[in-house]
Description:
alpha/beta; Carbamate kinase; two-stranded antiparallel sheet; 19% strand
Amino acid sequence: MKYKRILLKLSGEALMGERQYGIDPKRLAEYAEDIKVLVDKGLEIAIVIGGGNIFRGVAGASNGMDRVQGDYMGMLATVINGLALQSALEDAGVQTRLQTAIKIEAMAEPYIKRKAMRHLEKGRVVIFGSGTGNPYFTTDSAAVLRAIEINAEVILKGTRVDGIYNEDPEKNPDAIKYETISFDEVIQKGLKVMDMTAFTLSQENNLPIIVFDMNTRGNLLKVVSGDIIGTIVK
């Protein structure tokens, strides 16, 4: 394996599968099985998951809702997704812990770095819910922040697209895919990898990001094995 400790960033939308909203149990089970393969190979895995399949704070604010309230609602959506993923992983026989930046002690541990590190060392998958716990920060920012805190070697951003392109490949079939690209190039070309706060934090801490298609079975294993799947930003 090329990596020992990774942080996997999943979008909430990824959990919808073929649905228009909510959680698709089939997609969840597939993700759990792919993650279990890595656990069985001794990898230490942390996960940050978005909440866009349930509620997105920015969308709420655009419809007149208070942005702070909307963002807190989005944080709760990530906890719902975290609980669902935790359940799917445990059904697959993987030990997990859900930690949240906002205290919800009836269902999750509060985020404590040392505890998270200990869980990882013991082979448990740690899911980080409720983003950073602060409004105006995305789950991308939470993913980079947690990855730095737990000394992850790489951020794996699982999406429905198989990498970074010069244009939207869903709109332009002739879009060109990058295998490797630098942080500076992404900024110069105005490519959308993560929001700028998250991206800058990753750049300042020399934390590489791999964007890949999570919905193709086996891709996750290929990425951590060092295969050229998706796009590496470094």
